[in-house]
Amino acid sequence: MNETMLCVVGNVATRPVYRETASGPAARFRVAVTARYWDREKSAWADGHTNFFTVWANRQLATNAAASLSVGEPVIVQGRLKVRTETREGQPGWMSADIDAVAIGHDLARGTTAFRRAQRTEQQTSPEPNWETVPDDSPPSGTGRTQRPPEPVTVT
């Protein structure tokens, strides 16, 4: 597919709005991205133009973003760019730049965060394999038994 993928680094500009929809969880928020440049006349860094993007997240990403993000926090958003043109209040040519997010995270260059693995709510679709014995069609390994893998660790 010829989609425009991009990565933006900015700050959360609006509180994430979370909704349960027929197709699953969805969330949206705005991110502000301001260009910085070196002003030679003032010998200092200066702010350039600020671009605002509406970030759309779906499914587990939406749930995690709504629970994790607050206004003003530095974030990195990766996703597909969608530019829309609409007519608003009778005025044609209104444009918006949206990002259909694939990944969202805090910008660790500007602070720290603590990761907590989300609890999975999905049911396992296939039964757990029997780790106690080797299947009949596999070559003998000497003992005829395999070790059970370690139990998963839940990080909270």
From TrEMBL:
Pfam family, one: SSB
Keywords: DNA-binding
GO biological process entries: DNA replication
Keyword Ligase: no
Leader sequence residues: none
GO function terms (MF aspect): single-stranded DNA binding
Disordered: annotated span: 116-156
Top-level division of the source organism's lineage: Bacteria
Quaternary structure (record): Homotetramer.
Name used for this protein in its record: Single-stranded DNA-binding protein
Source organism: Streptomyces toyocaensis
